Q: What sequence folds into this?
């Protein structure tokens, strides 16, 4: 080997890691004069700033290390939180504490839906129908009650009996004449026992046919009074129909009764 080649000094080889370390040291010396490196735990100034990691292991030439943004490490001093000053416990005279307000919860009111107006003829018609039904029911109940009363009092067929002094057959107050009136097949029939003697009986048939609904159940009653004004007691027959009463008059001739005529002056 020639001597010239041996005498030339060899250049020291620097790897990529040394270049990065020297660049970081130079940047730390430039802008980190005011930073006290003695407070660091590791004692190395290069740890204050970490250069951003490149995509490659080489550092580009001409790159300004001052443009690199330092990254904060865990060795930086964290700010101490400032404690808030406690307020004095002295009562405020101007603004005394207010007592808690008591409130009552109210349930939400339900909105009333407007009612539809009803024409006045509707309740009027309903009332009339109700009255009609009530009248019909009441009439039926009344008729039923009257029939039950007649069944109890007059029996079947309807029969009525009474005593009266009419001046026939020598009757008197001690021995009055006995009369029986009955409704037999819608015909009013009266039987007279003069002075109460069955041997002196006389029958009369009223010239009136009992027509209409319930005519066969109409009771017949007798009334004795002077309707002609001749001083003799006459016989008045009352036929009690459900709708109205029918009247038939028999005139007393002194021995018996006869049907009245148009020439008789009757005042009932």
A:
């Amino acid at each position: 080997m020639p001597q010239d080649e041996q005498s030339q000094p060899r250049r020291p080889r620097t790897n990529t890691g040394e270049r990065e370390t020297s660049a970081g040291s130079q940047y730390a010396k430039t802008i980190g004069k005011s930073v006290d490196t003695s407070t660091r735990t590791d004692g190395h100034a290069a740890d204050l700033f970490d250069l951003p990691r490149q995509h490659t292991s080489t550092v580009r030439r001409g790159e300004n290390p001052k443009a690199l943004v330092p990254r904060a490490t865990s060795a930086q001093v964290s700010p101490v939180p400032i404690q808030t000053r406690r307020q004095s416990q002295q009562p405020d005279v101007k603004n005394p504490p207010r007592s808690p307000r008591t409130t009552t919860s109210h349930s939400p009111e339900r909105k009333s839906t407007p009612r539809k107006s009803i024409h006045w003829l509707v309740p009027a018609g309903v009332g009339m129908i109700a009255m009609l039904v009530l009248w019909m029911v009441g009439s039926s109940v009344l008729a039923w009650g009257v029939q039950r009363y007649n069944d109890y009092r007059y029996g079947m067929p309807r029969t009525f009996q009474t005593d009266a002094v009419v001046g026939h057959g020598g009757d008197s107050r001690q021995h009055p004449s006995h009369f029986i009136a009955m409704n037999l097949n819608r015909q009013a029939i009266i039987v007279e026992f003069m002075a109460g003697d069955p041997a002196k009986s006389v029958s009369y048939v009223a010239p009136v046919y009992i027509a209409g609904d319930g005519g066969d159940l109409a009771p017949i009653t007798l009334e004795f009074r002077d309707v002609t004004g001749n001083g003799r007691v006459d016989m008045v027959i009352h036929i009690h129909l459900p709708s109205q009463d029918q009247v038939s008059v028999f005139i007393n001739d002194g021995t018996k009764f006869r049907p009245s005529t148009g020439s008789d002056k009757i005042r009932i």
In short: Residues 157-259 form one domain. Residues 17 and 57 are 8 Å apart (CA to CA). The chain is about 20% helix and 20% strand.
